[in-house]
Write a structure and sequence with these properties.
52% of the residues lie in helices and 9% in strands. By secondary structure, it is an alpha/beta fold. The longest helix has 26 residues. It starts with a helix and ends in a 6-residue tail after the last helix. The structure holds D-arabinaric acid and zinc ion.
């Protein structure tokens, strides 16, 4: 027995590196937050080169250099916008930004010319694809076992699709996004009762894995405002009743430059103590939390050490750059062991799963390897089984456990 365990101990750093790489690159991931929709959602399911290039992360970058009035850009067709983004960021300039490198990763994976002067070849490739097979292939390449959608219960298009009785691809789980609700200024008591009933019905029909809410940097709790009332009287009781985790995404400053439309949001440093108070007052509600400001990341780790009903997840949006992902992931390993969810893709366009996960896996593998190497230097080698256990926990176990089980098993 002892011999067989010892034979698996990875005491050579070369072997350790190889095993970490292998397991991080081949373990399927459950993507805890995306804006993807399955094929059954028709036009809401975005894929292909024109959608990829008009992603809001890239339009913001292209419009810094292209020097044309915002309105002129928005008046262009999607294809013309994509052409302009390609020319600006990939032909006339070197695509060094993370979002631009993501495009290169995707093109390269499909064997397309990453130095092309126009989009002809890429367009021909994507339009030759059978969409259903393409979707399967993307999930396969990205090693993604499932994704969580962002479902707005107040969106008419989504509502019509749900009502048409579609059966949704099982790889896509729903989540109940409450931003539109919370942005409603005033709420009468009768409205509160109605809203609770509306949410109960929606939850029963669509079985979301969690409820979610994005919040501005000045989010406070408790507070004397309509949002506080909604949290106390609608959202938290609903979370309790349906045993649903509540996902809080804190620090987005919406519409900093409205002329940039979807690309116009910014960020701000938030107050993590508001989340601590929520966790303390609602110990039987499980919270998933991500903060947009780099400055909040250490505080979030410390809050998670204090509250076992708080799960930090992802390096969100403006943090999803290799240097910052590396820093945050290392900090989390040091402060939380493996009790966190290292990344979510936030993908809006199908093929983004490929690059977002390939790039994230690189940083996670490096950080994990360095942790194990340090452990080895201190006198403890790890086994392949332990690496596999850790990676599974990080890539799907923590999330699945969080959304399925109560804080304390009964
Ligand atoms: O990362 C993004 O694409 C942002 O625009 C937001 O959608 C953000 O992730 C959110 O869910 O609010
Ligand atoms: Zn998002």
């Amino acid at each position: 027995m002892v011999t067989s365990i010892e034979s698996q101990l990875l005491s050579s750093t070369t072997e350790l590196r190889a095993q970490v790489e292998l397991l991080v690159n081949s373990t399927p991931v459950m993507d805890a937050h995306t804006h993807l929709f399955p094929l059954e959602f028709n036009e809401l399911c975005l894929w292909g080169i024109d959608e990829l290039l008009t992603y809001h992360y890239l339009t913001a970058e292209a419009l810094r250099t292209a020097r044309l009035p915002y309105e002129q850009f928005w008046a262009m067709s999607k294809m013309a916008q994509a052409d302009l983004v390609w020319k600006t960021l990939f032909v006339d300039n070197t695509p060094t930004s993370e979002a631009a490198q993501g495009i290169i990763t995707v093109l390269d994976v499909f064997g397309l010319d990453t130095r092309a002067t126009n989009l002809q070849e890429a367009r021909a490739f994507f339009s030759s694809r059978n969409v259903a097979e393409h979707l399967d292939q993307v999930f396969d390449i990205a090693q993604v076992s499932g994704v969580v959608m962002t479902n707005n219960p107040f969106d008419d298009v989504e509502d019509q699709l749900w009502s048409s009785g579609i059966s949704v691809d099982r790889r896509f789980s729903s989540s109940l996004r409450l931003d539109s609700l919370v942005n409603t200024a005033e709420l009468a008591v009768s409205t509160i009762t109605r809203v609770r009933k509306f949410l109960d019905d929606w939850i029963q029909r669509h079985n979301p894995v969690y409820m979610a809410l994005s919040l501005p940097p000045d989010f406070n709790f408790p507070a004397d405002d309509a949002r506080d009332r909604l949290l106390r009287e609608v959202i938290l009781p609903t979370a309790k009743e349906h045993r649903l985790a509540l996902t809080l995404m804190v620090g987005a400053r919406r519409g900093v430059n409205p002329q940039l439309r979807e690309a116009g949001d910014g960020l701000g440093r938030a107050d993590v103590t508001a989340i601590e108070r929520l966790c303390a007052q609602y110990p039987d509600v499980k919270f998933l939390a991500t903060f947009l400001s780099r400055e909040n990341q250490h505080e979030l780790c410390i809050a998670a050490r204090k509250f076992n009903n708080l799960m930090p997840f992802g390096c969100w949006w403006f943090l999803n750059n290799p240097s910052i992902v590396s820093e945050i992931t290392r900090e989390r390993f040091e402060l939380l062991g493996q009790s966190f969810i290292p990344q979510h893709s936030d993908a809006r366009v199908l093929e983004q799963l490929i690059y977002k996960w390939q790039h994230a896996r690189r940083q996670i593998a490096d950080a994990l390897y360095d942790s194990y190497k340090q452990l080895l230097s201190r006198g403890r080698a790890v086994t392949t089984e332990e690496i596999s256990r850790d990676v599974n926990r990080l890539f799907s176990g923590n999330f699945n456990d969080w959304v399925r089980n109560p804080v304390y098993p009964v």
